[in-house]
Amino acid sequence: MKERLHFYYTNDLHSHFENWASIVDFLNKKKEKHRQDKEHYWIVDIGDHVDRFHPISEAFRGKRNVELLNDVGYNIATIGNNEGITLEYYDLFHLYDAATFKVVCGNLTARNERQPVWLKDHYTFQSETGIKITVLGLTAPFTPFYRPLGWDVEPPYEYLRRELPKVEQDSDIIILLSHLGLSDDEMIARDFPSIDVIIGGHSHHLLKNEKSINQSILTAAGRYGHFVGEVDLLWDHNQNKLIEKHAYAMETSHMKKDLETEKKLEHLNKEAEIVLQQPVTVLKQRLEVNWFLNTIIIQQLTDHLQKWTDADIAMLNAGLLLDHLEKGPVTKRDIHRICPHPINPCTVKLRGIELLEVIRGAYDQALITLELKGFGFRGKVIGKFVFSGLDIEIMTDEDGIEHVKNVYYQGEEIAEERIYTFATADMFTFGRMFPQISRSKTKQFFLPEFLRDLLIDLLKN
Questions:
Q1: Within 13 Å, how many C-alpha atoms sit on residue 212's CB side?
Q2: Most CB within 10 Å of its CB: which of 147, 226, 306, 440?
């Protein structure tokens, strides 16, 4: 006898609810079909369903995201870094208290002795015919962020080396929900051939069809709900093994939308607007925002960042603020609207010679006009860089391009070997925008505050 097993998945929705009703309609139709055909199916999420750029996730700290997963009938989920490091300790600790699905994340533990009731190392279950399926979950090990928030996150390889042999003995099929990224998934498939399926996320990669490495197949459905994934497995009871493994990612743009879900999202949006109408301050004048100019508000926010972190120097990019603030009452909703990024303040230690390279790089027009996606940035372009604690002499060439001529700190030229404490947005500790910052071995992240919390503090005072 041969038996088909079906898994459906989402990954990296990032609270892009504009695609959620299409995903729900697709899943509901699949569920009904499998019920009629009497086939087994499970629905899983690979993390980063929550993203606090959206008012619903901001107002309810992700709990309405969990409610939406409950509504569809998800069976299992793992957590992504947006659940893990953009929520305060108790918000994450209680995030899944009302979940009707299992949450598996083997490499995450609370640093106190008590663990969340929902957090499972792995989940093993049986189909009605007795096939034993084990689902593991792993999240990206962003230790410098997790530890200040009260969590420990173990390197994924250490976890797998220790725990995988234990589950191999009592599993017919092993599935990994991996919020680690494609390169890690590929290495895991090479090094741990007992894993049958790796459903991936985190790096927002799209695999429209399965990718085979050793005994494993890899699959992932991009980001923002533009795709929804399916894994089909065929088990041969006579041979007592899997004989087929396939995976697909289907585009959602052409799919119908579930009307009940659309109504619920509309209702949740209204609820979120009410929650976020908490007053912050009253402005006596309009505060202008311009991504390519040094405006009052971005300069004052940079100054405030320098003081708040007790740094020598601070740098922010004008693209962090998306819109103006009008004269009159300002609410938390207004602040969230103009600064939606889940980005934390941070400091790094830089030698003077490294600091000069950062400052020169900040005048690169290609970087200023870069349309960045990722690293927590939810804006359009990077924008002009603004500094606090420095005097910078600029020369403008015949093409109108600005270049750094001299840089002074407290009236003296930057000393190349002196160590300076440099405050900025944590997004610059990732990637290649500023190699000197990303390579620094002395980073301090300020959590759980986002930059918008500093903006609120600035406006209140």
A1: 5
A2: 306
Ramachandran category for residue 24: left, alpha or beta (phi over 0 → left; psi -120 to 50 → alpha): alpha
Q: Which of 134, 153, 9 is nearest to 81 (CA)?
A: 153
**Cα–Cα distance for residue pair 325/289, rounded to 1 Å:** 8
Peptide bond into 156 cis (omega under 30): no
Q: According to CATH, what is the number of the domain 2-271? A: 3.60.21.10
pLDDT in tens, 406-438: 899 999 999 999 999 999 999 999 878 999 999
- If one counts every other C-beta atom within 10 angstroms of the C-beta of residue 158, the result is 11
Alpha-carbon distance of 13 to 137, in angstroms, equals 17
Say if residue 306 is exposed, middle or buried (CB neighbours under 10 Å; 0-12, 13-18, 19+). buried
pTM over 0.70: yes
**Are 2-271 and 278-460 in the same CATH fold?**
no
Domain ranges of the chain: 2-271, 278-460
CATH of domain 278-460: 3.90.780.10
Measured CA to CA, the distance from residue 133 to residue 116 in angstroms comes to 24
Q: pLDDT tens-digit profile of 88-108? A: 999 999 999 999 999 999 999
Tell me the C-alpha distance between 288 and 298, whole Å.
9
Helix/strand/coil for 25 = helix
Query: Are the C-beta atoms of 452 and 339 separated by less than 8 Å?
Result: yes
